[in-house]
Amino acid sequence: MNVSPFPFHGPLEPEELSGRDGMVQTLIERVTAHRPTVLVAPRRYGKTSVLGRIASELADTTTVIRVDLYELRSWADLAVRIDDALAAVGGPGRFALDRVAASLQFDLGLVKVNFSRPDRPEPDITVDRLLDIIVAHGQRTPTVLIFDEFSSIIRLNGAAGLLRTKLQHHFSTIGLLFAGSEPSTMHMLFAETDQPFYAQADLVELPGLDFDTIADLVQDGFDPPAPCDLARHLDSFAHGHPQRTMQLADAAWRAQRDDVDPADLWPEALERVRRATDTAHELRFTGLSPSEQAVMRLAANRRPLHGRDAELLALGSTSATAARRALLDGGHITTTESKRVEMIDPLFADWIRRRFPI
Ligand SMILES: Nc1ncnc2c1ncn2[C@@H]1O[C@H](COP(=O)(O)OP(=O)(O)OP(=O)(O)O)[C@@H](O)[C@H]1O
Ligand SMILES: [Mg+2]
Fold first, then answer.
1. Under CATH, domain 20-205 is a member of which superfamily?
2. d(Cα 197, Cα 194) in Å, to the nearest integer?
3. Ligand closest to the CA atom of residue 9
4. Which class in CATH covers the domain with range 288-355?
5. Among the atoms of ligand 1, which is closest to the Cα of residue 149?
6. Residue 1 pLDDT > 80
7. Closest ligand 1 atom to the C-alpha of 49?
8. Is-contact 13 3, C-beta < 8 A?
9. Which of 198, 205, 252, 283 is placed for a possible disulfide with 269 were both Cys, Cβ 3.0 to 4.6 Å?
């Protein structure tokens, strides 16, 4: 086989997903029971892959509308994203959706073209009309509406409010699933009293991959079999981070094909991935403020943000608090149950530890 069994760029195909059966079933049960749900996980944890699997499992019975709000720029952009999502609906819902759109004098899939014309429609009114189509369709046909990268909605003043206004009386007919990777923004959107979606949905966290899943991935992907400690190395280095686990497994798979001695497979894979990512990590690090860099150095080494190590890095408590907040918001770090700060990306943490040994 020439194609690596460990893809690590972009979402997985529905049939490639491992270790998510329980999560997928839970989410399907929730949305089909019309319990609005928020799926939260750090970047590259497999959110979009899970959404894709849900869409494919529901495709025969349900109209699944998947709106991607990644880096949303404007109301026109929002209208185009929703229109694209509606135009992409296939299966039995397609015909019904076109009929609903026609009854509301709307041609799906043409919003982008219409916006480029001199007599272009108002973008916010277009969003309004597209939501009307979804609501009307949802009253006739089982429908699930999925927003990926939902945290981008805060970039548009009033957009979350409009969605809430349009959808709030239809929570019992349309399944709603929101996914996002900026935990603080997602919590803000759904857990702060002044936000339109306050208390409207339950938060479900997508965890990293567990050891059994990693062991299965290794067992299924390697032929001849990988050394028996490879899964253990992947687990203890990447801590279940899905994309980094796959990237390292891919490097090990390639090293095996290059006839690297089985005993050297893990160190060779790690070295190759380090070489491929070092420059990017350096750029990521230099893009941080000095206080953020200090917090990252402590987090990478699992040290507290106060005390001797913090003093050595000249990190005062006020700047530590501000930097910690910014890094949490940016998805660089997370806090453990014991309130310790940890880095999300194990490879970036590894780069920081190598570059700045404590
Ligand atoms: N269940 C899984 N099993 C193995 N690898 C996975 C799994 N889920 C995700 N991955 C790995 O993570 C990568 C990213 O997956 P995906 O794009 O779905 O994540 P995401 O959370 O949507 O990322 P982003 O934050 O960039 O939107 C995949 O290419 C794959 O390497
Ligand atoms: Mg994604």
1. P-loop containing nucleotide triphosphate hydrolases (3.40.50.300)
2. 9
3. 1
4. mainly alpha
5. 27
6. no
7. 18
8. no
9. 252
